[in-house]
Amino acid sequence: MAKNQHLIVLTEGALITAAAQVLNFVPHSAGISSIQFQYGLIPMAIFALRRGLKPGLMAGLCWGLLDLILRGFSSGSFLNPLQGFIEYPVAFAAVGLIGLGSIKVKQVIKDGKNSIGWILLFSSIGFVIKYFCHFVAGGVFWGAFAPKTMNPWIYSLVINGGSFIANMIMLFVLLIVLHKLFDRLIIVR
Protein backbone atom coordinates (compact mmCIF):
# COMPACT_ATOMS: atom_id res chain seq x y z
CA MET A 1 0.00 0.00 0.00
CA ALA A 2 1.38 3.40 -0.96
CA LYS A 3 2.27 5.79 1.84
CA ASN A 4 -0.52 8.24 0.91
CA GLN A 5 -3.05 5.42 0.62
CA HIS A 6 -2.05 4.11 4.06
CA LEU A 7 -2.58 7.59 5.53
CA ILE A 8 -6.00 7.85 3.85
CA VAL A 9 -7.09 4.47 5.29
CA LEU A 10 -5.78 5.42 8.75
CA THR A 11 -7.59 8.78 8.66
CA GLU A 12 -10.78 7.17 7.42
CA GLY A 13 -10.56 4.57 10.20
CA ALA A 14 -10.09 7.26 12.83
CA LEU A 15 -13.12 9.20 11.54
CA ILE A 16 -15.29 6.06 11.43
CA THR A 17 -14.19 5.09 14.95
CA ALA A 18 -15.07 8.56 16.23
CA ALA A 19 -18.44 8.45 14.45
CA ALA A 20 -19.19 4.99 15.87
CA GLN A 21 -18.37 6.22 19.37
CA VAL A 22 -20.51 9.34 19.00
CA LEU A 23 -23.39 7.11 17.90
CA ASN A 24 -22.92 5.07 21.10
CA PHE A 25 -24.00 8.14 23.06
CA VAL A 26 -27.38 8.20 21.30
CA PRO A 27 -29.96 6.46 23.54
CA HIS A 28 -30.25 2.94 22.21
CA SER A 29 -32.33 0.68 24.44
CA ALA A 30 -35.01 -1.41 22.79
CA GLY A 31 -37.79 -1.51 25.37
CA ILE A 32 -36.09 -4.17 27.47
CA SER A 33 -33.33 -2.17 29.15
CA SER A 34 -30.47 -4.54 28.34
CA ILE A 35 -31.29 -5.19 24.67
CA GLN A 36 -29.55 -2.39 22.81
CA PHE A 37 -29.04 -1.12 19.31
CA GLN A 38 -25.44 -0.17 18.58
CA TYR A 39 -25.71 2.36 15.79
CA GLY A 40 -21.94 2.47 15.41
CA LEU A 41 -22.03 -1.04 13.95
CA ILE A 42 -23.34 0.38 10.67
CA PRO A 43 -20.41 2.69 9.85
CA MET A 44 -18.00 0.03 11.13
CA ALA A 45 -19.53 -2.57 8.81
CA ILE A 46 -19.26 -0.22 5.84
CA PHE A 47 -15.64 0.62 6.74
CA ALA A 48 -14.63 -3.04 7.11
CA LEU A 49 -16.23 -3.91 3.76
CA ARG A 50 -14.64 -0.83 2.16
CA ARG A 51 -11.11 -1.26 3.51
CA GLY A 52 -10.78 -4.93 4.42
CA LEU A 53 -9.97 -7.16 7.35
CA LYS A 54 -6.92 -5.54 8.93
CA PRO A 55 -8.21 -1.94 8.91
CA GLY A 56 -11.61 -3.24 10.09
CA LEU A 57 -10.05 -5.11 13.01
CA MET A 58 -7.91 -2.11 13.98
CA ALA A 59 -10.86 0.31 13.83
CA GLY A 60 -12.99 -2.09 15.90
CA LEU A 61 -10.21 -2.48 18.46
CA CYS A 62 -9.82 1.30 18.74
CA TRP A 63 -13.59 1.68 19.06
CA GLY A 64 -13.64 -0.90 21.86
CA LEU A 65 -10.85 0.83 23.77
CA LEU A 66 -12.50 4.22 23.29
CA ASP A 67 -15.86 2.87 24.49
CA LEU A 68 -14.20 1.25 27.51
CA ILE A 69 -12.59 4.54 28.51
CA LEU A 70 -15.54 6.84 27.75
CA ARG A 71 -18.47 4.64 28.79
CA GLY A 72 -17.34 1.35 30.32
CA PHE A 73 -15.48 2.69 33.33
CA SER A 74 -18.04 5.39 34.13
CA SER A 75 -21.21 3.31 33.63
CA GLY A 76 -20.31 0.35 35.84
CA SER A 77 -19.91 -1.94 32.82
CA PHE A 78 -16.35 -2.81 33.83
CA LEU A 79 -16.34 -5.52 36.50
CA ASN A 80 -12.75 -6.77 36.23
CA PRO A 81 -9.87 -6.73 33.74
CA LEU A 82 -10.77 -10.04 32.03
CA GLN A 83 -14.42 -9.10 31.57
CA GLY A 84 -13.40 -5.64 30.33
CA PHE A 85 -10.94 -7.17 27.87
CA ILE A 86 -13.54 -9.61 26.47
CA GLU A 87 -16.40 -7.12 26.21
CA TYR A 88 -14.51 -4.14 24.89
CA PRO A 89 -11.31 -4.66 22.84
CA VAL A 90 -12.07 -8.26 21.80
CA ALA A 91 -15.82 -7.94 21.14
CA PHE A 92 -15.54 -4.63 19.30
CA ALA A 93 -12.52 -5.78 17.27
CA ALA A 94 -14.60 -8.79 16.17
CA VAL A 95 -16.77 -6.37 14.20
CA GLY A 96 -13.76 -5.94 11.92
CA LEU A 97 -14.17 -9.56 10.82
CA ILE A 98 -16.82 -8.20 8.47
CA GLY A 99 -13.79 -7.20 6.39
CA LEU A 100 -13.39 -10.87 5.42
CA GLY A 101 -16.04 -10.12 2.79
CA SER A 102 -14.46 -6.97 1.43
CA ILE A 103 -13.15 -8.43 -1.81
CA LYS A 104 -16.30 -10.47 -2.51
CA VAL A 105 -18.73 -7.64 -1.80
CA LYS A 106 -16.75 -5.16 -3.90
CA GLN A 107 -16.66 -7.62 -6.80
CA VAL A 108 -20.42 -8.21 -6.61
CA ILE A 109 -21.03 -4.43 -6.61
CA LYS A 110 -18.65 -3.87 -9.54
CA ASP A 111 -20.40 -6.66 -11.47
CA GLY A 112 -23.67 -4.77 -11.05
CA LYS A 113 -25.25 -7.54 -8.97
CA ASN A 114 -27.29 -7.17 -5.80
CA SER A 115 -24.94 -7.04 -2.82
CA ILE A 116 -27.53 -7.14 -0.01
CA GLY A 117 -27.15 -10.87 0.69
CA TRP A 118 -23.35 -10.71 0.77
CA ILE A 119 -23.31 -7.64 3.00
CA LEU A 120 -25.72 -9.32 5.41
CA LEU A 121 -23.71 -12.57 5.38
CA PHE A 122 -20.37 -10.97 6.21
CA SER A 123 -21.93 -8.50 8.64
CA SER A 124 -23.57 -11.38 10.49
CA ILE A 125 -20.12 -12.98 10.97
CA GLY A 126 -18.80 -9.89 12.76
CA PHE A 127 -22.04 -9.34 14.69
CA VAL A 128 -22.28 -13.00 15.81
CA ILE A 129 -18.73 -13.06 17.14
CA LYS A 130 -19.17 -9.69 18.87
CA TYR A 131 -22.32 -10.83 20.64
CA PHE A 132 -20.83 -14.26 21.37
CA CYS A 133 -18.10 -12.45 23.34
CA HIS A 134 -20.80 -10.55 25.24
CA PHE A 135 -22.73 -13.81 25.77
CA VAL A 136 -19.68 -15.52 27.33
CA ALA A 137 -18.95 -12.50 29.53
CA GLY A 138 -22.63 -12.35 30.46
CA GLY A 139 -22.71 -15.98 31.57
CA VAL A 140 -19.41 -15.84 33.45
CA PHE A 141 -19.27 -12.33 34.88
CA TRP A 142 -22.81 -10.90 34.83
CA GLY A 143 -24.60 -14.08 35.97
CA ALA A 144 -25.07 -12.68 39.47
CA PHE A 145 -27.36 -10.01 37.99
CA ALA A 146 -29.71 -12.54 36.35
CA PRO A 147 -33.14 -12.99 37.91
CA LYS A 148 -32.87 -15.49 40.79
CA THR A 149 -35.04 -18.06 39.04
CA MET A 150 -33.19 -17.86 35.71
CA ASN A 151 -30.04 -19.65 34.63
CA PRO A 152 -27.36 -16.99 34.01
CA TRP A 153 -26.48 -18.51 30.62
CA ILE A 154 -30.12 -18.36 29.48
CA TYR A 155 -30.31 -14.78 30.72
CA SER A 156 -27.14 -13.88 28.82
CA LEU A 157 -28.46 -15.62 25.70
CA VAL A 158 -31.73 -13.70 25.86
CA ILE A 159 -30.07 -10.31 26.39
CA ASN A 160 -27.15 -10.71 23.99
CA GLY A 161 -29.10 -12.77 21.46
CA GLY A 162 -31.80 -10.11 21.54
CA SER A 163 -29.21 -7.39 20.93
CA PHE A 164 -27.73 -9.39 18.05
CA ILE A 165 -31.15 -9.85 16.44
CA ALA A 166 -32.08 -6.17 16.99
CA ASN A 167 -28.86 -5.01 15.34
CA MET A 168 -29.20 -7.41 12.40
CA ILE A 169 -32.76 -6.15 11.83
CA MET A 170 -31.49 -2.56 11.99
CA LEU A 171 -28.78 -3.37 9.42
CA PHE A 172 -31.27 -5.19 7.17
CA VAL A 173 -33.76 -2.31 7.21
CA LEU A 174 -31.07 0.30 6.53
CA LEU A 175 -29.58 -1.87 3.81
CA ILE A 176 -32.93 -2.24 2.05
CA VAL A 177 -33.72 1.49 2.31
CA LEU A 178 -30.19 2.76 1.55
CA HIS A 179 -28.83 -0.04 -0.63
CA LYS A 180 -27.37 2.18 -3.37
CA LEU A 181 -25.76 4.45 -0.77
CA PHE A 182 -24.17 1.43 0.94
CA ASP A 183 -22.77 0.28 -2.41
CA ARG A 184 -21.30 3.72 -3.14
CA LEU A 185 -19.73 3.93 0.33
CA ILE A 186 -18.14 0.46 0.05
CA ILE A 187 -16.48 1.02 -3.31
CA VAL A 188 -13.24 2.98 -3.03
CA ARG A 189 -12.91 5.52 -5.83
Automatic annotation (TrEMBL):
Asked whether the UniProt record includes S-adenosyl-L-methionine among its keywords, one would answer: no
- UniProt GO MF annotations: thiamine transmembrane transporter activity
List keywords of the entry alphabetically: Membrane, Transmembrane, Transmembrane helix
A Pfam family of the record is Thia_YuaJ
Q: Name one GO cellular component term.
A: plasma membrane
Q: Where are the transmembrane segments?
A: 56-73, 85-103, 115-141, 153-178
State if Membrane is listed as a keyword. Answer: yes
Which NCBIfam families does the protein's record reference?
ECF_ThiT_YuaJ
Put simply, this protein is called Energy-coupled thiamine transporter ThiT
